[in-house]
Design the sequence.
């Protein structure tokens, strides 16, 4: 159920952030770029973040993550526009082929909460500024 009041929205956003931060320590968050990373760090995400737009093929990014002993699962947190959805599908495919477990629930949950205010990760900061006291 979606929040009805600003207070409920603020609490839902904090719950989402807490759930993200309480995931196992061997999780890495996959985002599209630098602005996404900066925004997540600003709102308090503590998990390691990897930008997938590094100028190298996605296959190489995922392969390097799956070989890294620090990470045993990836949280796919691409934008929730059409391009971000296509990118999430490609990342899921690559993770599956490389044997890297992944999570897309976190992405779906924040998209449902903020869908009418924002369409991308880098704009989460404005929603947190507006609703989280």
Sequence:
């Amino acid at each position: 159920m979606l929040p009805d009041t600003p207070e409920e929205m603020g609490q839902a956003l904090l719950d989402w952030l807490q759930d993200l931060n309480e995931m196992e320590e061997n999780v890495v968050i996959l985002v599209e770029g630098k602005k996404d990373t900066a925004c997540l760090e600003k709102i308090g995400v503590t998990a390691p973040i990897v930008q997938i737009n590094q100028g190298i093929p996605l296959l190489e990014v995922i392969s390097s993550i799956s070989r890294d002993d620090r990470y045993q699962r990836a949280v796919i947190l691409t934008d929730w526009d059409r391009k971000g959805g296509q990118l999430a599908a490609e990342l899921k495919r690559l993770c599956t082929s490389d044997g890297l477990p992944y999570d897309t629930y976190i992405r779906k949950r924040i998209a449902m909460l903020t869908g009418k205010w924002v369409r991308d990760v880098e704009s989460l900061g404005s929603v947190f500024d507006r609703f989280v006291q």
The chain has a mean pLDDT of 93. The two ends are 21 Å apart (CA to CA).
